[in-house]
């Protein structure tokens, strides 16, 4: 665990529209093969942090104005979002960005867009995704927009898997889903982590669930990390319980 972090965010500031300071010096590390939770209330800056890492802020008129972000020892800001995907870092957006009018399988295939290897490798990976998500296999021919919320979230993660990622930035996978479905999705995250060594940075408002699956957590408040530690220690911390778990 003393090795160079796979992802290292160092004291970044992010500004929207040139004037709105949203991240005020955020630092965090994600070890290779880790699951790290980024926690905090709505508006704390979780999505902004993930978008800074995947270099997607420009389209939101956002900019990293200070600090550095290293993924696999390369400065992220020198790479395009597509180059980052090719290097193994991909974001799954909040709100399950599936193409509603495409079938589940067509959605998954669009995830292979950065791949240069052949069709058989892509077909193999499709099988691999269906192995993790049997529900997606059942729904492969269905129009994505007509599948359930949980299936759409699975489809979004499956689509990301088609790029053969080493690291997934997962933005609020639990949003709007029933607890049982959330657990099903988190179990698959754990499987991917254990069996394929996929590293996860997981932004969640569902602190309880996230801390069950993550090994380490960071708590963001108003654009700053106010606490971090081992997931088990955070889950047992009285302040965390009071403010984020609702069980004082
Ligand atoms: P959420 O649960 O809503 O995703 P979050 O913790 O991910 O919350 P962010 O979405 O990163 O928080 O938002 C952090 C702050 O930045 C909020 O105050 C939000 O209003 C502001 N913000 C987000 N996007 C923009 C934008 N494009 N322009 C201006 N301000 C923005």
How is the secondary structure organized here?
Elements: E1 7-16, E2 20-30, E3 35-39, H1 46-53, E4 62-71, E5 74-75, H2 81-86, E6 89-92, H3 104-110, H4 119-132, H5 134-138, H6 149-161, E7 167-171, H7 179-196, E8 199-204, H8 207-213, E9 216-221, E10 224-230, H9 231-236, H10 238-245
Parallel strand pairs: 3-8, 3-9, 6-7, 7-8
Antiparallel strand pairs: 1-2, 1-4, 4-5, 9-10
Helix pairs in contact: 3-6
This protein binds adenosine-5'-triphosphate.
Give me a quick take on this structure.
Keywords: Amino-acid transport, ATP-binding, Nucleotide-binding, Transport. This protein has 248 residues and is of the alpha/beta class.
Structure notes:
This is ABC transporter ATP-binding protein. Belongs to the ABC transporter superfamily. Involved in beta-(1-->2)glucan export. Transmembrane domains (TMD) form a pore in the inner membrane and the ATP-binding domain (NBD) is responsible for energy generation. One of its GO terms (biological process) is L-amino acid transport. It comes from Bradyrhizobium icense. With 248 residues, this protein is an alpha/beta fold. It has 10 helices and 10 strands. It has helices at residues 46-53, 81-86, 104-110, 119-132, 134-138, 149-161, 179-196, 207-213, 231-236, 238-245; strands at 7-16, 20-30, 35-39, 62-71, 74-75, 89-92, 167-171, 199-204, 216-221, 224-230. The strands form 2 sheets. A 6-stranded mixed beta sheet has the order 6-7-8-3-9-10, with helices on both faces. The chain has a 4-stranded antiparallel beta sheet with strand order 2-1-4-5, covered by helices on one side. Strand 4 (62-71) and strand 5 (74-75) form a beta hairpin. The protein is globular and about 45 Å long. Adenosine-5'-triphosphate (ATP) binds at residues 16-17, 20, 22, 40, 42-48, 60-62, 94, 205.
């Amino acid at each position: 665990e003393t090795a160079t972090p796979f992802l290292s965010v160092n004291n970044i500031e992010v500004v929207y529209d040139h004037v709105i300071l949203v991240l005020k010096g955020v630092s965090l590390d994600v070890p290779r093969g880790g699951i790290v939770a980024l926690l905090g209330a709505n508006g704390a800056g979780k999505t902004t942090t993930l978008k800074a890492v995947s270099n997607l802020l420009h389209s939101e008129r956002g900019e990293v104005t200070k600090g550095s972000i290293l993924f696999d020892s390369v400065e992220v800001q020198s790479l395009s979002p597509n180059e980052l995907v090719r290097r193994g870092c991909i974001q799954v957006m909040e709100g399950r960005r599936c193409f509603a009018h495409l079938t589940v399988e067509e959605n998954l295939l669009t995830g292979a867009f950065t791949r240069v290897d052949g069709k058989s490798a892509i077909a193999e990976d499709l099988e691999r995704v269906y192995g993790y998500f049997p529900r997606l296999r059942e729904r492969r021919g269905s129009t994505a927009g007509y599948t359930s919320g949980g299936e759409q979230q699975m489809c979004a993660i499956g689509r990301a898997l088609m790029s053969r990622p080493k690291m997934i930035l997962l933005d609020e996978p639990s949003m709007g889903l029933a607890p049982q479905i959330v657990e099903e999705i988190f179990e698959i995250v754990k499987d991917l982590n254990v069996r394929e060594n996929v590293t996860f940075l997981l932004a969640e408002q569902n602190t309880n669930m996230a801390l069950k699956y993550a090994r380490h957590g960071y708590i963001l408040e108003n654009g700053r990390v106010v606490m971090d530690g081992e997931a088990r220690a955070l889950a047992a911390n009285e302040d965390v319980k009071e403010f984020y778990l609702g069980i004082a």
